[in-house]
Amino acid sequence: MQKPKVPDIVVGRLPLYLRALSQMKSEGKRVTSSQELGERLGISSAQIRKDLSQFGGFGKQGTGYNIAYLADQLKTILKVDRVWDVALIGVGDLGRAVANYGGFLHRGFRIVAVFDNDPAKIGSRIGSFIVEDATNLVTSIRSKAIKVAMIAVSQVDAQAVTDRLVEAGVLGILCYAPISIAVPSHVKVQYIDPVVHLQRMTYHLP
Amino acid sequence: MQKPKVPDIVVGRLPLYLRALSQMKSEGKRVTSSQELGERLGISSAQIRKDLSQFGGFGKQGTGYNIAYLADQLKTILKVDRVWDVALIGVGDLGRAVANYGGFLHRGFRIVAVFDNDPAKIGSRIGSFIVEDATNLVTSIRSKAIKVAMIAVSQVDAQAVTDRLVEAGVLGILCYAPISIAVPSHVKVQYIDPVVHLQRMTYHLP
DNA sequence: TAGATTGTTAATCGATTAACAATC
DNA sequence: TAGATTGTTAATCGATTAACAATC
Question: Is-above-0.85 flag for pTM?
Answer without folding.
Answer: yes
